[in-house]
Amino acid sequence: MYELEDKDETAAFYERGSDRAVAVVCLAIVENRLTDLLKAAMRKDEKTQGELFNPSGPIGNLATKIKLAYMLGLIHADVYSDLRLVTKIRNEFAHSVRITSFDEPSIKNRIESLHAFGVWKSLEQKSAALTDPNADSNARLQAQILRDELSNWRDRFRMCLRLCIWQLVMSTKRVE
Questions:
Q1: 3-class DSSP state of 38
Q2: DSSP state of 89
Q3: I need a labelling partner for 94 at 20 to 30 A (CA). Which of 22, 63, 68, 129 fits?
Q4: CB neighbours of residue 47 within 10 Å
Q5: Whole-prediction pTM
Q6: Banded model confidence at residue 129, pLDDT cuts 50, 70, 90
Q7: How far apart are CA 100 and CA 34, in angstroms?
Q8: HSE on the CB side for 60, CA within 13 Å?
Q9: How many other CB atoms are there within 10 angstroms of residue 72's CB atom?
Q10: By CB neighbour count within 10 A (0-12 exposed, 13-18 middle, 19+ buried), where does 156 fall?
Protein backbone atom coordinates (compact mmCIF):
# COMPACT_ATOMS: atom_id res chain seq x y z
CA MET A 1 0.00 0.00 0.00
CA TYR A 2 2.83 2.42 0.68
CA GLU A 3 6.40 2.62 -0.39
CA LEU A 4 9.23 3.21 2.01
CA GLU A 5 12.69 3.93 0.68
CA ASP A 6 14.73 1.21 2.32
CA LYS A 7 14.99 -1.18 5.24
CA ASP A 8 16.09 1.63 7.59
CA GLU A 9 13.01 3.67 6.75
CA THR A 10 10.80 0.61 7.14
CA ALA A 11 12.36 -0.15 10.53
CA ALA A 12 11.87 3.47 11.61
CA PHE A 13 8.21 3.43 10.51
CA TYR A 14 7.52 0.35 12.65
CA GLU A 15 9.73 1.46 15.55
CA ARG A 16 8.61 0.19 18.92
CA GLY A 17 9.92 3.24 20.79
CA SER A 18 7.86 5.85 22.57
CA ASP A 19 4.76 7.37 21.01
CA ARG A 20 6.71 10.63 20.79
CA ALA A 21 9.41 8.91 18.72
CA VAL A 22 6.82 7.31 16.45
CA ALA A 23 5.12 10.66 15.79
CA VAL A 24 8.38 12.43 15.00
CA VAL A 25 10.05 9.66 12.97
CA CYS A 26 6.96 8.74 10.94
CA LEU A 27 6.44 12.39 10.00
CA ALA A 28 10.06 12.53 8.83
CA ILE A 29 9.22 9.71 6.41
CA VAL A 30 6.13 11.58 5.21
CA GLU A 31 8.28 14.67 4.72
CA ASN A 32 10.75 12.62 2.63
CA ARG A 33 7.94 11.50 0.31
CA LEU A 34 6.61 15.08 0.09
CA THR A 35 10.10 16.35 -0.78
CA ASP A 36 10.37 13.66 -3.48
CA LEU A 37 7.04 14.81 -4.93
CA LEU A 38 8.07 18.46 -5.06
CA LYS A 39 11.46 17.63 -6.58
CA ALA A 40 9.80 15.46 -9.22
CA ALA A 41 7.70 18.45 -10.27
CA MET A 42 10.75 20.72 -10.55
CA ARG A 43 13.49 21.25 -13.06
CA LYS A 44 16.36 18.82 -12.43
CA ASP A 45 18.94 21.18 -10.92
CA GLU A 46 20.44 19.54 -7.84
CA LYS A 47 22.33 22.64 -6.69
CA THR A 48 19.26 24.87 -6.73
CA GLN A 49 17.06 22.13 -5.24
CA GLY A 50 19.63 21.69 -2.47
CA GLU A 51 19.44 25.40 -1.69
CA LEU A 52 15.64 25.40 -1.75
CA PHE A 53 15.20 22.28 0.41
CA ASN A 54 17.99 23.04 2.88
CA PRO A 55 16.43 23.19 6.38
CA SER A 56 17.06 26.96 6.42
CA GLY A 57 16.05 27.35 2.76
CA PRO A 58 12.73 28.68 1.49
CA ILE A 59 11.24 25.17 1.14
CA GLY A 60 13.07 23.56 4.05
CA ASN A 61 10.07 23.66 6.38
CA LEU A 62 7.46 20.86 6.36
CA ALA A 63 4.53 23.28 6.56
CA THR A 64 5.87 25.17 3.53
CA LYS A 65 6.27 21.94 1.57
CA ILE A 66 2.68 20.95 2.35
CA LYS A 67 1.29 24.32 1.27
CA LEU A 68 3.42 24.39 -1.89
CA ALA A 69 2.38 20.87 -2.95
CA TYR A 70 -1.26 21.79 -2.44
CA MET A 71 -1.04 25.14 -4.24
CA LEU A 72 0.70 23.50 -7.21
CA GLY A 73 -2.11 20.95 -7.43
CA LEU A 74 0.20 18.06 -6.58
CA ILE A 75 -1.91 16.86 -3.67
CA HIS A 76 -5.67 16.72 -3.13
CA ALA A 77 -7.39 18.93 -0.54
CA ASP A 78 -8.00 15.88 1.71
CA VAL A 79 -4.30 15.01 1.72
CA TYR A 80 -3.43 18.66 2.36
CA SER A 81 -5.78 18.78 5.33
CA ASP A 82 -4.48 15.47 6.72
CA LEU A 83 -0.85 16.51 6.35
CA ARG A 84 -1.53 19.72 8.24
CA LEU A 85 -3.24 17.76 11.03
CA VAL A 86 -0.52 15.13 11.37
CA THR A 87 2.02 17.95 11.51
CA LYS A 88 0.08 19.40 14.45
CA ILE A 89 0.15 15.98 16.12
CA ARG A 90 3.89 15.73 15.62
CA ASN A 91 4.35 19.26 16.96
CA GLU A 92 2.31 18.46 20.07
CA PHE A 93 4.62 15.53 20.80
CA ALA A 94 7.76 17.48 19.94
CA HIS A 95 6.97 20.67 21.86
CA SER A 96 4.95 19.56 24.86
CA VAL A 97 6.46 17.38 27.56
CA ARG A 98 2.91 16.78 28.82
CA ILE A 99 1.95 14.90 25.63
CA THR A 100 3.42 11.40 25.84
CA SER A 101 0.82 9.12 24.27
CA PHE A 102 -1.48 8.79 21.30
CA ASP A 103 -4.18 8.14 23.94
CA GLU A 104 -4.13 11.81 24.98
CA PRO A 105 -7.56 13.32 24.19
CA SER A 106 -6.12 16.13 22.03
CA ILE A 107 -4.17 13.60 19.94
CA LYS A 108 -7.09 11.17 19.60
CA ASN A 109 -9.37 14.00 18.49
CA ARG A 110 -6.94 15.06 15.78
CA ILE A 111 -6.53 11.48 14.56
CA GLU A 112 -10.32 11.07 14.42
CA SER A 113 -10.48 14.27 12.34
CA LEU A 114 -8.21 12.88 9.63
CA HIS A 115 -9.81 12.06 6.30
CA ALA A 116 -7.58 8.97 6.17
CA PHE A 117 -9.01 7.83 9.51
CA GLY A 118 -12.52 8.03 8.03
CA VAL A 119 -11.35 5.91 5.09
CA TRP A 120 -9.94 3.24 7.41
CA LYS A 121 -13.04 3.28 9.65
CA SER A 122 -15.25 2.86 6.60
CA LEU A 123 -13.18 -0.10 5.44
CA GLU A 124 -13.30 -1.57 8.94
CA GLN A 125 -17.10 -1.29 9.01
CA LYS A 126 -17.40 -2.88 5.58
CA SER A 127 -15.04 -5.66 6.56
CA ALA A 128 -17.02 -6.34 9.73
CA ALA A 129 -19.71 -7.79 7.49
CA LEU A 130 -17.08 -10.16 6.13
CA THR A 131 -16.57 -11.84 9.49
CA ASP A 132 -19.66 -13.88 8.78
CA PRO A 133 -18.62 -17.55 8.98
CA ASN A 134 -20.04 -17.98 5.48
CA ALA A 135 -17.67 -15.37 4.01
CA ASP A 136 -14.62 -16.74 2.21
CA SER A 137 -11.45 -17.22 4.24
CA ASN A 138 -9.51 -14.47 2.41
CA ALA A 139 -12.22 -11.94 3.25
CA ARG A 140 -12.22 -13.00 6.90
CA LEU A 141 -8.43 -12.76 7.03
CA GLN A 142 -8.50 -9.25 5.52
CA ALA A 143 -11.11 -8.18 8.07
CA GLN A 144 -9.00 -9.54 10.94
CA ILE A 145 -5.83 -7.82 9.71
CA LEU A 146 -7.67 -4.51 9.41
CA ARG A 147 -9.10 -4.86 12.93
CA ASP A 148 -5.62 -5.61 14.26
CA GLU A 149 -4.12 -2.62 12.44
CA LEU A 150 -6.72 -0.30 13.98
CA SER A 151 -6.59 -1.75 17.49
CA ASN A 152 -4.95 1.24 19.23
CA TRP A 153 -4.38 4.96 18.63
CA ARG A 154 -0.71 4.56 17.77
CA ASP A 155 -1.53 2.04 15.03
CA ARG A 156 -4.43 4.17 13.81
CA PHE A 157 -2.02 7.09 13.44
CA ARG A 158 0.40 4.90 11.49
CA MET A 159 -2.37 3.58 9.26
CA CYS A 160 -3.36 7.15 8.42
CA LEU A 161 0.24 7.95 7.57
CA ARG A 162 0.45 4.82 5.41
CA LEU A 163 -2.41 6.18 3.34
CA CYS A 164 -0.77 9.63 3.11
CA ILE A 165 2.56 8.09 2.07
CA TRP A 166 0.84 5.98 -0.56
CA GLN A 167 -0.95 9.04 -1.95
CA LEU A 168 2.31 11.02 -2.06
CA VAL A 169 4.11 8.16 -3.82
CA MET A 170 1.30 7.80 -6.37
CA SER A 171 1.34 11.57 -6.99
CA THR A 172 5.12 11.45 -7.48
CA LYS A 173 4.75 8.65 -10.04
CA ARG A 174 2.13 10.66 -11.92
CA VAL A 175 4.38 13.72 -12.01
CA GLU A 176 7.42 11.76 -13.17
A1: helix
A2: H
A3: 68
A4: 7
A5: 0.86
A6: low
A7: 26
A8: 9
A9: 13
A10: buried
